[in-house]
Amino acid sequence: MRRPSSLKAYLFLAPFLALFLFVTVYPVIFGAYLSLFGQRGARMWWVGLGNYLEVLTDPQFWSGFKIPLFLLFVQVPLMLVIAVAIGLLYERIRHSRVYRLIFYLPYAMPGIIAGLLWSYIFSKSMSPFIPLLGSLGIRNMAFITSSSMPWILLVIILWEWTGYTSLIVYATLVSIPKEYAEQAQLDGANSLQVAFYIKVPLLATTVLLLFIFNSIGALQVFNEPWVLGALITLPPNYTPAMYIYSQAFYYGAFTHAIAMGLILAALIFVISFFFLRRSSAELSAHA
Predict the structure, then answer these.
(1) Distance CA 222, CA 120 (A)
(2) Is position 85 within any domain?
(3) CA–CA gap between residue 170 and residue 167 (Å, rounded)
(4) Burial classification of residue 99, based on how many CB atoms lie within 10 Å of its CB (0-12 exposed, 13-18 middle, 19 or more buried)
């Protein structure tokens, strides 16, 4: 009886699996094969692990992790705290559907468009804040500098992703049985105590997954600094993703760039696996 059911399930999955194998798995395998070659124009020659050894000893590649690590340890935790607070507010305020829509809209905007929008806001000549600053006697102010760039990226990414993250948090809160909060209120707990001692601990698994997903995004950040690079000169290795792009499309070192991309993917996997195992062990210990 189980075999026909399993066959039907695989038939339903077959279109997705075929597309996934063709679009994702095959390019990765073929890319891994190409990374074993050196390249100059159309000429290619076998180098084995030479590209990988060159990447691992390239200081420019490793220095590009400063911004992703800043986002990983500053932006991601800050966003999760704000998202949890907003998710809790969704339960308390009226017309929360309207606010959920408004907060979600930045996520619906493509990253390149968001970068262009913020480029206009931080532009030295076109910023809508110029008249306000001019009335205060501040003129020719440079919004974007090498020192302020990480914080501007933090603001932009918070604006883009916090609304979506708060929506995931709210969906988890809605799934929590109301009996938990009602029982706590019968025992004398107020709304804040219910939120912090009942609901927030139950969000641990969701917050963990959101942390891992957003950490992956932080380590791959590309769109925002790439677009803002039109306003300020950034080094080609400002982030690893930008360095990979510049090596591939500015210098034509495609096989070398593939090796960098695979090393970056391996690092992301190791970091995600570490956080997942460590957090899962802590959650199990407190369960």
Answers:
(1) 18
(2) yes
(3) 5
(4) middle
What secondary structure does DSSP assign to 134-148, as a single string? Answer: HHTT--S--S--TTT
Q: Which amino acid is at 162?
A: T
Name the CA radius of gyration of the chain, rounded.
Answer: 24
pLDDT (0 to 100) of residue 282: 63
- The number of residues making up the chain comes to 287
Q: Which of 81-90, 125-134, 181-190, 277-286 has the lowest mean pLDDT?
A: 277-286
Alpha-carbon distance of 112 to 228, in angstroms, equals: 10
- Give the pLDDT confidence of 240-268 residue by residue, as tens digits: 999 999 999 988 889 999 999 999 999 99
The answer as to whether 216 is a domain residue is yes
115 falls within a domain: yes
Average of pLDDT values for 51-55? 93
Confidence grade of residue 146 (pLDDT, cut at 50, 70, 90): confident
CATH assignment of the domain containing 223: 1.10.3720.10
Per-residue model confidence (pLDDT) at position 30: 93
Query: Tokens 């076998």 — which residue?
Result: 46
Structural domain count, the chain: 1
Report the pLDDT value the prediction gives residue 287, as an integer from 0 to 100: 56
Q: Which amino acid is at 227?
A: V
Domain with 167, as residue range(s), is 66-233
Within a domain: 225? yes
Instruction: Indicate the pTM of the whole model.
Output: 0.84
